[in-house]
Design brief:
By secondary structure, the protein is mainly alpha-helical. It has 5 helices and no strands. The protein is rod-shaped, with a radius of gyration of 32 Å. This is Small ribosomal subunit protein mS33.
């Protein structure tokens, strides 16, 4: 009688795990042998992504570079107003020492 219960419990557990794998789109691997699923689930990198999303990446890069440039210029403008910006080329401390 106990063997029957063990078989029944094992079958129920197996059915539950199979159902869970189907619902949550998991891959069942009861033997535990290595498979290529882990590699296939990784995100695409490098040239594959660039080839797939070329128009989106180039537009995003242009927008990003424009934002970085705008931020840098606004920071420089704030420093100039406070008198903390770098001097023009040839107007620094070393050039002032030479003129004395």
């Amino acid at each position: 009688m106990s063997n029957f219960r063990l078989l029944l419990a094992e079958a129920a557990l197996k059915g539950v795990t199979e159902a869970r794998a189907r619902i949550f789109v998991h891959v069942l691997n009861p033997t535990g042998q290595p498979s290529g699923i882990k590699i296939l689930r990784k995100k695409l990198i490098g040239e594959k992504v660039a080839a797939w999303y070329t128009h989106m990446i180039s537009r995003g890069m242009i927008l990003l570079s424009w934002l970085v440039k705008k931020k840098r210029l606004s920071k420089l403008e704030m420093q100039k107003r406070r008198g903390k910006a770098a001097p023009k080329k040839g107007q620094g401390r070393r050039a002032l020492k030479r003129n004395k």
